[in-house]
């Protein structure tokens, strides 16, 4: 069978050649799309990463939080001479004029030393399960 002077064998060869070219372009386009998808996904992840890292609500230690532990310059006169437990280690202490203290959520907490007070101020929620000082 001939088609405009071409034999069937020539037509099959031509068809085969065209199919290879088309399939090659499709494969090449598919590879391009895969690599462009990677960059699109990468860009989206980079854009969204600050949102994932940023806190969704203000932690207790943020300046605008209402639950900030306020360091007491000195214990109130009514507390001096009383016995309580350290809010961090639980050790029994006698409140003196120079005992480190903090007011947090309307309650006063006292500590053995300044480093324990600083630890409580940084993360008061870690120590709230212990009995509160009076």
Could you characterize the architecture of this molecule?
By secondary structure, this protein is α+β, with helices and mostly antiparallel strands. Strand 4 (83-85) and strand 5 form a beta hairpin. It is 41% helix and 16% strand. It has two helices and seven strands; from the N terminus they run E-E-H-E-E-E-E-E-H.
Describe this structure in a few short sentences.
The chain is of the alpha+beta class and 134 residues long. Helix content is 41%, strand content 16%. The strands form three sheets. The chain has a three-stranded antiparallel beta sheet with strand order 3-6-7, covered by helices on one side. Strands 1-2 form a two-stranded antiparallel ribbon.
How can the largest sheet be summarized? 3 strands, antiparallel
- Tell me the strand order in the biggest sheet: 3-6-7
- Low-pLDDT runs: none
Mean pLDDT: 75
Name the features:
single chain; 134 residues; alpha+beta; two-stranded antiparallel ribbon; 2 helices; 7 strands; 16% strand; rod-shaped
Question: What's the layout of helices and strands?
Answer:
Blueprint: E1 2-3, E2 6-7, H1 8-53, E3 70-72, E4 83-85, E5 92-94, E6 101-104, E7 107-110, H2 114-122
């Amino acid at each position: 069978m001939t088609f405009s002077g071409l034999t069937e064998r020539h037509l099959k060869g031509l068809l085969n050649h065209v199919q290879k070219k088309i399939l090659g372009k499709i494969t090449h386009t598919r590879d391009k799309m895969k690599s462009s998808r990677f960059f699109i996904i990468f860009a989206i992840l980079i854009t969204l990463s600050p949102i994932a890292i940023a806190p969704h609500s203000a932690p207790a230690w943020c300046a605008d939080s209402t639950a900030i532990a306020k360091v007491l310059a000195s214990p109130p006169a009514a507390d001096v001479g009383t016995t309580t437990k350290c809010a961090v280690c639980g050790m029994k202490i006698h409140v003196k004029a120079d005992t480190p203290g903090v007011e947090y959520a309307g309650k006063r907490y006292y500590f053995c030393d300044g480093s324990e007070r600083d630890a409580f101020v940084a993360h008061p929620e870690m120590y709230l399960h212990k009995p509160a000082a009076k």
